[in-house]
Amino acid sequence: AAYLERAGQLAWERGDRQDALRRFREAVRVDPDQWAAQAGQGRALAALGRTTEALGAYRAALARQPRPEYALELGELYESLGLERAAEVQYGVVRERVRVAAAHGGDESLVLGRFEADHGDAAGAVRRLREVWERQPSTEAADALGWALHRAGEHEEALPFAVRATEGTEGGGVRSASYVFHRGMIERSLERYGSARRHLKEALQINPWFSPLWVPRAKTALARLGEPSVQAGPEPA
User: Would the pTM of this model clear 0.85, i.e. be above it?
Assistant: First the structure.
């Protein structure tokens, strides 16, 4: 079941919704307590437009394994559907599950930092994620800190972390649509339009369904960038 769940996650990361769903379902069939696969089903079903089933899968995962990241994904799905009140309930669950984990010696700082960057206190997320980065630097921490800095308006400082998370030569190299999207949006804020356009396109090519909340924003940002103008000459990289 763990192998099947990982295979489903890899299929999801490359944008293969149907294969991801098939793998996640098989993992749950083999082991009904494979809640990461249950949440994965929610992710894949949402991408397939099967929203009611997706909500049910997420709720089932949270009922037995109330991980804060599952609540965050469900909250963002609700928000993408315009169900703000339901989204806020799930965002409250994120905070509560992080608090409970901390009381039992768990550390969910990375999830909380990601959540706060997008739905709460971006400056607070930066402080929290700096501590995570200093304690245990990783590709995931680089992406989260870079995005939090961007959300807090610190675009110049954000970019090296986004590069670290997306470039193999910088110790990252994870081909993640979400990470590449973050880099593109940071570059757009810095008026590096050529790189921004390239990375936003790449994110949507890697996985056109990487987030029900952020994919529409990626498409809007890309549309506003438009195509490069031949008459205007080369764009900033």
Answer: yes
